[in-house]
């Protein structure tokens, strides 16, 4: 196992329902450390670029609208196998399919308002972290 970094977003449904502390408790209890964090209002241009890989999908416009509908908390997480560990804790994208005890099973409202985002690969983690954080903002 290796120490990795991954990128996390607490989505607008989570900030709106005041769930950021409860979700981050789940992460910390699983051994992940929050080594960078900021609360931001994502712009449409930022959301479109961040989710650019989904541009051709039918849900793209709604996804961008949702991600800009309120504040989000962007974070860098560090820990043993952090990318897979965080994805396990998040659970399946669709909360109806998420395993019991996962963040999405506990908190998500729908496949769109699914409370959290996490990088799906080391390459994407590096890209996504660099998209929102300068190196000086990450304190491991
Ligand atoms: P996320 O991990 O942030 O990456 C893309 C997001 O698109 C995903 O979580 C979902 O919240 C959202 N989304 C909305 N509709 C769908 C869908 N039908 N299939 C997959 N993802 C969807």
Please provide a written account of the structure.
This protein is an alpha+beta fold and 140 residues long. The chain is built from 7 helices and 4 strands. A 4-stranded antiparallel sheet has the order 2-3-1-4, sandwiched between helices. The mean pLDDT is 98. Residues 54, 59, 63, 93, 111-112, 114, 117 line the site of adenosine-3',5'-cyclic-monophosphate.
Biggest sheet details: 4 strands, antiparallel
- Which regions are unreliable across 5 or more consecutive residues at pLDDT < 50? none
* Portion of residues within helices: 25-40%
Relative strand content: 15-25%
**Separate helix tally:** 7
Q: Distance between the terminal alpha carbons, to the nearest Å?
A: 18 Å
Q: Count all strands and give the number.
A: 4
**Element-level helix/strand string:** EHHEHHEHHEH
Give the overall pLDDT as a whole number: 98
Q: Per the principal axes of the C-alpha atoms, what is the gross shape? A: globular
How is this structure best summarized?
Helices cover 39% and strands 20% of the residues.
């Amino acid at each position: 196992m290796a120490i990795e970094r991954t990128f996390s977003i607490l989505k607008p449904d989570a900030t709106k329902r005041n769930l950021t502390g409860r979700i981050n408790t789940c992460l910390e209890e699983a051994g992940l450390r929050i080594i960078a964090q900021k609360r931001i209002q994502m712009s449409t241009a930022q959301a479109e670029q961040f989710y650019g890989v989904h541009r051709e999908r039918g849900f793209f416009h709604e996804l961008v609208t949702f991600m800009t509908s309120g504040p989000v908390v962007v974070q860098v997480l560090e820990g043993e196998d952090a990318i897979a560990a965080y994805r396990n804790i998040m659970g399946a994208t669709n909360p109806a399919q998420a395993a019991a005890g996962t963040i999405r099973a506990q908190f998500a409202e729908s496949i769109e308002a699914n409370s959290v985002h996490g990088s799906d690969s080391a390459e994407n983690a590096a890209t996504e972290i660099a998209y929102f954080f300068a190196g000086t903002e990450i304190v491991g």
